[in-house]
Amino acid sequence: MKYNIPTLKKIEQLMEEADYIVRYEKGNFKSGYCLLRDKRIIVVNKFFDTESRINCFIDLLPQLSIHEDTLEEKSRAFLHQLKTREVEA
Fold it and tell me: Do 75 and 17 touch, CB atoms closer than 8 A?
């Protein structure tokens, strides 16, 4: 997988389809992100570069409740690709 802006946009689209709100803010995040589960909001450090942002989303995947039946086919395939990437790492 390439760590570039189109990949980040795909991840953002995937999160939107899964009813998560993604925000880029400054703050003291020890892990680089903050997950507000009850409100389904993901806050990522806005000073991170593209690669770090993508890695944050990959780290978050196991913690998210994403119902695959609500995703479009392309997003579902991309989610499986991300999960496979996460397992290989």
Answer: yes
